[in-house]
Amino acid sequence: MNWGIFQGLLSGASQFSTAFGRLWMSVVFVFRLLVYVVAAERVWADEQGEFDCNTKQPGCHNVCYDHYFPVSHIRLWALQLILVTCPSLLVLMHVAYREDRERKHRERQGEDCGRLYIHTGKKRGGLWWTYLMSLITKALVDSVFLYIFHHLYKDYALPRIVKCSLPPCPNIVDCFISRPTEKNIFTLFMVVTTVVCILLNLCEIGYLVSKRCCENMKHKSQSNVVAYLQKQEMFNVNNKVNEEIEMLPNIHITPPETKLK
């Protein structure tokens, strides 16, 4: 499988990410994608061919392998990497949508018109929510796959020998897994890097939310200050008007005498 498209996707999304997001992409690309392509695929290349059982009964080998390995590690990891990078594609699509709106706005109004967005990649409005949902989705995807691995393979570990008595096996047969120690090391490595990615996603979520809360509090504080200054200015203007009125000379107007008929 050609993983170059995912490398390009991660590289394109990094320019719209925070420091936590760029660190997450580095971990995914170096410690997960490259390890998968360079080493993990080769380690599991012989997983079924080297799964030996001490019987020649036709079908026993396949049945036992399917029972203990319903889904291959390597295929689950490939699916995990695909799904965990898809939310970054949503962010890129949202930025592309903004750029298209900005282009059409300039074509209709002219180059001297105001901009719809200060910066099409700035995380404000809908793009902020898209980015936040992408982080939540990536953390959920990794968490779900961690649960699936733990459910299928207890404690993420492969035993050296498994006992199988499923039909058409004639009796309880011993089956041996190829290179279980090496596979366990890679499994542990992939699990640890997945946990690191989840923590980075949670840190970035906390950073984005706290930053937005601080900006809202700052904006509210500035609004209160402006309102207070405006109130003070109106108060001073009223005082000045009152003082000018008091300085005017008092003019007494005597009403004309009325004659009684």
From TrEMBL:
Gene3D superfamilies membership: Gap junction channel protein cysteine-rich domain
Entry-linked Pfam families: Connexin
According to its UniProt entry, the protein's GO biological process terms are: cell-cell signaling
Q: What topology does it adopt in the membrane?
A: Multi-pass membrane protein
The record places domain Connexin N-terminal at 42-75
Q: Where in the cell is it found?
A: Cell junction, Gap junction; Cell membrane
- What domain of life does the UniProt record list for this protein's source? Eukaryota
Key words, A-Z: Cell junction, Cell membrane, Gap junction, Membrane, Transmembrane, Transmembrane helix
Every Connexin cysteine-rich domain range: 141-208
Instruction: Please give an example of a GO cellular component term from this record.
Output: connexin complex
Example GO molecular function term?
A: gap junction channel activity
Q: Does the keyword Protease apply?
A: no
Transmembrane segments annotated in the record for this chain: 20-39, 77-97, 128-149, 185-209
Subunit architecture: A connexon is composed of a hexamer of connexins.
The family classification in the record reads: Belongs to the connexin family.
Briefly, what is this protein's role?
Answer: One gap junction consists of a cluster of closely packed pairs of transmembrane channels, the connexons, through which materials of low MW diffuse from one cell to a neighboring cell.
From the Swiss-Prot or TrEMBL record, give the protein name: Gap junction protein
| Originating organism | Engystomops pustulosus
